[in-house]
Write a structure and sequence with these properties.
The complex is a heterodimer of chains A (336) and B (200). Chain A has 336 residues and is mainly alpha-helical. Helices cover 63% and strands 5% of the residues of chain A. Chain A is elongated, with a radius of gyration of 27 Å. In chain A, 31% of the residues are buried. Chain B has a single domain, classed as 2-Layer Sandwich (Alpha-Beta Plaits), CATH 3.30.70.20. In chain B, a hairpin with a 7-residue loop joins strand 2 and strand 3. Chain B is globular, with a radius of gyration of 17 Å. Classes of the chains: A mainly alpha (336), B alpha+beta (200). Chains A and B meet through helix 2, strand 1, strand 2, strand 3 and helix 3 of A and strand 2, strand 3, helix 2 and helix 3 of B.
């Protein structure tokens, strides 16, 4: 599903990139048989021009130089992307992800702490780490819902609330979307810096993969502070976050360093990456709440059960306990 | 049923910008907004052509398709109108428009573009205001069409380069011109706007 969406993105980008390549219109100087210039031969026809260039530009007398773009048929291509590819692709990716997660819940169910709770807790995420996570998470949910409204609102919400109310909602949603982008970027930068060190791939990740990533009951998948799945969420989120932020700010400042084709391209990147990002985060939310017992409290209270840590992050737990022993502190704090 | 279109015979356009002025005056369009403009291709070179361009009132208008709040719609005469009450100023119609027709009163950032403005074919607005009312004029400009008149830009074109009216009729006029003078640079934008060309 992901590779399909990516292939679709590649096709759209290719189409748009082909549209960017601009060539100066060449004029064929035609002569009559007697050598004199043919008065009608210099006619610059639209059809001939479009054989040479993807869009027609000229000179304009008014101060608004952007208006010198005469015809850009790529607008219809963007229309097709937005109304057909994005609607279908977005719906398939998002609903498909929800369906897969539902299926996972039915088949695998909630991953329990095999040994049960020990009653002892250990600190997994510090306050600043939790703040960064929830700042980004809250911003993401707001951006996701307001963004989806721009694409799917007229199909899902408009028939329910009517055009006037929907216009008011969308107007508000647009401003909320534009300004929440800043808190998202702050959160993204914090997350990227704070968790950078612990997300390098290592040999243990291969072993984790071989052991079924903790989903197979009688196998133990070893992991440090973050396992391969979490590392993938981290790196994909950083990449997607940078892509949506850069393309989003380009769209927020129309015509600042971009022309119409680049804005279309930025919108395509913004929409496609955002849809994939939503799918990724849906999976992330599932595994952090419904999918696994004892996982949510890591970001909730910051403390996890010792047995949960042993089963999912044994190498990290061993390191933490060793550190605490060195400093002469109790190896784990009691729950109450 | 008539299907209203614009046709610019670029071999007649002399870049006088009278259509631009007429439009601004008739509709009292605010500063910074040009619903119509004249673009000159190959300026100063052989084959120079000037084309007067505004909203072409497309068939299957892409602006209407992409509008997230569906404020843009075609009338039964094929004129593409929009409601400024519904518009949220997102700029999507501008990305989709092949002719750069949608304009925004604010060049501001953070999405503060203001309500979109574009050529209405001098047919008033697509909002709830009564046709020909002062409220409608304030928001959208003149409703000449409601009085049985064509857009002023085309009506006062000194060389009759810019034609407005039923698509079949103006196509026929253009065809006869091309046959008579022996050349023509094509009906600019027709292929993109109406998915048909005028074969001579």
């Amino acid at each position: 599903m992901f590779s399909l969406a990516r292939a679709r993105l590649a096709v759209v980008i290719m189409m748009l990139l082909l549209g960017i390549a601009a060539f100066g219109p060449a004029i064929a100087q035609k002569l009559n048989p007697d050598g004199a210039p043919n008065p009608t031969a210099s006619v610059t026809s639209e059809r001939e021009l479009f054989k040479q260039v993807p869009r027609i530009e000229g000179r304009i007398d008014i101060p608004d130089k952007k208006a010198s773009e005469l015809i850009q048929p790529a607008g219809r291509t963007w229309d097709y992307f937005h109304e057909v590819l994005l609607h279908w692709g977005g719906a398939i990716v998002i609903l498909g992800t929800i369906a897969l997660l539902g299926l996972a819940y039915l088949i695998i169910g909630r991953v329990r702490i095999a040994e049960g709770r020990s009653g002892k807790k250990i600190l997994r995420f510090k306050a600043l780490e939790r703040f960064s996570h929830w700042l980004t998470a809250a911003s993401f949910v707001v951006l996701g819902l307001t963004g989806l409204n721009i694409t799917f609102g007229k199909i899902l919400l408009l028939p329910v609330v009517g055009p006037d109310t929907f216009s008011d909602i969308s107007q508000g949603a647009k401003y909320v979307h534009n300004f929440t982008s800043f808190s998202f970027v702050v959160g993204l930068i914090l997350i990227t810096m704070i968790f950078f060190r612990d997300n390098f791939f290592g040999r243990v990740d291969l072993e984790w993969l071989k052991q079924g990533g903790g989903f197979i009951k009688n196998k133990h998948a070893p992991a440090g502070r973050f396992n391969l799945g979490e590392k993938l969420v981290y790196w994909l989120s950083v990449i997607a976050g940078v892509a949506v932020s850069v393309s989003g700010f380009l769209l927020l400042f129309p015509f600042y360093g971009t022309d119409i084709v680049e804005m279309q391209l930025a919108q395509v990147v913004h929409a496609v990456v955002a849809v994939l990002f939503v799918a990724l985060i849906l999976a992330h939310i599932y595994i952090g709440t419904l999918g696994m017992e004892g996982a949510f409290e890591a970001m909730g209270t910051g403390e996890v059960d010792l047995n949960w840590a042993k089963e999912h992050h044994d190498l990290w737990l061993a390191r933490q306990l060793a550190n605490q022993d060195q400093h002469g502190q109790p190896s784990a704090t009691p729950a109450e | 049923m008539a299907r209203m279109k614009f046709l610019c015979d670029a071999d007649r356009c002399i870049d006088c910008n009278a259509c631009v002025t007429a439009c601004k005056n008739e509709n009292e369009v605010p500063w910074g907004i040009n619903r119509r403009r004249v673009v000159t291709i190959n300026d100063g070179k052989p084959g120079e052509r000037s084309v007067s361009m505004a909203c072409m009132h497309c068939t299957d208008a892409p602006c209407a398709a992409v509008c997230p709040v569906t404020c843009i719609y075609p009338t039964e005469d094929g004129i593409v109108l929009h409601s400024k009450d519904i518009c949220i100023g997102c700029g999507y119609c501008f990305y989709a428009c092949p002719f750069g027709a949608p304009q925004y009163p604010k060049v501001g950032n953070f999405g503060s573009r203001g309500k979109m403005d574009k050529c209405t074919y001098c047919a008033g607005g697509g909002g709830p205001e009564a046709p020909g009312s002062a409220a409608e004029f304030e928001k959208y400009g003149s409703d000449r069409f409601g009085q049985g008149k064509l857009p002023l830009c085309a009506e006062m074109c000194s060389t009759k380069s810019l034609l407005a009216g039923d698509g079949d009729i103006i196509a026929q006029i253009y065809k006869e011109r091309v046959l008579k003078r022996g050349y023509g640079s094509g009906a600019w934008g027709w292929m993109t706007a109406y998915r048909e060309d005028i074969e001579v």
